[in-house]
Design goal:
six-stranded antiparallel beta barrel; Thrombin, subunit H; alpha+beta; 2 domains; 5 helices; single chain; 467 residues
């Protein structure tokens, strides 16, 4: 019988090979003759190298993720602490200020954007509203303690010159958002924004109304809808802009110092010395009895495009203020306030210097005509201007087209009556249309350009004038 001589670690037993009788042995002399061990199967070998590799990969991935998280956190923290725009407002030139610095009466942006649009007039009632950086909303101003000093300061904050201030008034209004109320002592050296405090109440709920110029009233007109000659004083804001003694473009008075016209009128004659402004005239002979006002500055919109006629608006600043009195035929038209909604099919009026039907010696006369505003979608249709109309433009069609009138006076005003006030809503842009072409005339949208207009007025508010 074959015997497995391999030894295992299992249990063993001892076997005798014979039955020989031997003398008894001492316990210390007993030794096994044959040892057979029975053991279970050996345990499988453990592969430690695979687990080690997996462990290393996991550790590397965890370290990389941790480093990426730390990098992202570092970038965010660096941006947060290095840029106030993470919790503030942009100035417009790349710099930023804290939100609490906006409209606080202290100029923090290099170009003053943080204090530029903090005062506004609302609606046909010219309700004064000022932005509060504390409550972060527009608030009406309580008339309690309000004086003409605060009124002049507010008009200057908008962009009007100090000498053009007209009047402050009162109007009863309930304001659920609270009020601003003037501090007791007025400081002429400090911004009006620093001289108002928040208030939840206002005595008698009387709020301030503010007129920075005596604008928007028309003296007289025939009110005929078709194109005809305008009577003297009918449209007191109309001016004739002349170069070398000849009428070049129309324009509209918006303050004793400022005229609105079209950019394409001044693009090729941008020198102030080239221009003379005549106000209160309706025919060529009137220039003999009215003074010519010189121009100190011509500002065309920097985004004006000759091809598309985008941003076709310009301002002229006069060397000295116009002689505006209660009995004068010279008076500003009002710039549209916030909340004055003028849209199609609102009626309006255009005025332009045009040749009369018989073309008498080529002389021009001030003509007037009623128009209706046209919806932009129709004006952009293929039957009209085929997609050329942008949001900075308005379209209008004469209610009664006149066959002999084929050219709108460039830069001339489009005005509309609403709430008893005449508002400047457009300046003539595309004037080379004729009634038989059945295409609406195109005007610059003055409401779209309000921020730009006030920006220019503030920028050149302190220009020296020739008295």
């Amino acid at each position: 019988m074959a015997t497995n001589l391999y030894l295992d670690s299992g249990p063993c037993f001892i076997r005798d090979d014979g039955e020989r009788k031997l003398p008894p042995l001492s316990r210390s002399d007993v030794k096994p003759q044959y040892v057979h061990c029975v053991a279970s199967k050996p345990p499988p070998e453990i592969n430690h190298s695979g687990e080690k590799q997996r462990c290393v990969k996991f550790t590397v991935a965890a370290v990389i993720c941790l480093l990426l998280l730390l990098l992202v956190a570092g970038v965010l923290l660096a941006y947060y602490y290095s840029s106030s725009c993470a919790h503030g407002l942009q100035c417009g030139d790349g710099s930023c200020v804290w939100e609490s610095q906006w409209c606080d009466g202290v100029t923090d942006c290099r170009s003053g954007q943080d204090e530029a649009n903090c005062v506004r007039l609302h609606g046909s009632n010219f309700l004064l509203q000022i932005y509060s950086t504390q409550s972060r909303n527009w608030r009406t101003v309580c008339s309690h303690g309000w004086t003409d000093q605060q009124g002049r300061a507010s008009c200057q904050q908008v962009g009007f010159s100090r000498g053009t201030y007209f009047k402050s008034g009162q109007r009863q209004i309930d304001s659920n958002d609270g009020y601003l109320i003037a501090k007791p002592a007025f400081n002429p050296e400090a911004s009006i924004l620093k001289q108002l405090v928040l208030s939840n109440t206002c005595p008698n709920n009387r709020a301030v109304t503010l007129h920075c110029t005596d604008c928007g009233s028309r003296v007289n007109s025939s009110r005929a809808s078709g194109g005809q000659r305008a009577s003297p004083g009918a449209w007191p804001w109309q001016v004739s802009l002349q170069v070398a003694g000849s009428h070049r473009c129309g324009g509209a008075i918006i303050s004793p110092y400022w005229i609105v016209t079209a950019a394409h009128c001044v693009a090729r004659a941008s020198s102030p010395e080239d221009w003379a402004v005549y106000a209160g005239i309706v025919d060529p002979l009137d220039t003999l009895f009215n003074p010519a006002y010189s121009v100190s500055r011509v500002e065309a919109h920097e985004g004006f495009n000759w091809v598309t006629r985008r941003n076709d608006i310009a301002l002229m600043r006069l060397s000295k203020p116009l002689a505006i009195t209660a009995s004068s035929n010279i008076r500003p038209v009002c710039l549209p306030n916030v909340g004055v909604d003028i849209a199609a099919p609102q009626k309006g009026w255009i005025t332009r210097f045009s040749r009369t039907a018989n073309g008498d010696s080529g002389s021009v006369h001030l003509m007037e005509a009623q128009v209706s505003l046209i919806n932009a979608s129709y004006c952009n249709s293929s039957s009209a201007h085929d997609g050329r109309i942008s949001q900075d433009m308005l379209c209008a069609r004469e209610t009664e087209a006149v066959a002999n009138v084929c050219h709108t006076d460039s830069g001339g005003p489009l005005v509309s009556l609403k709430g008893g006030v005449w508002w400047l809503i457009g300046d003539a842009v595309w004037g080379e249309h004729c009634p038989e072409q059945n295409k609406p005339a195109v005007y610059g949208n003055v409401t779209y350009f309000m921020d730009w207009i006030y920006q220019q007025m503030r920028k050149h508010q302190d220009d020296k004038t020739k008295e």
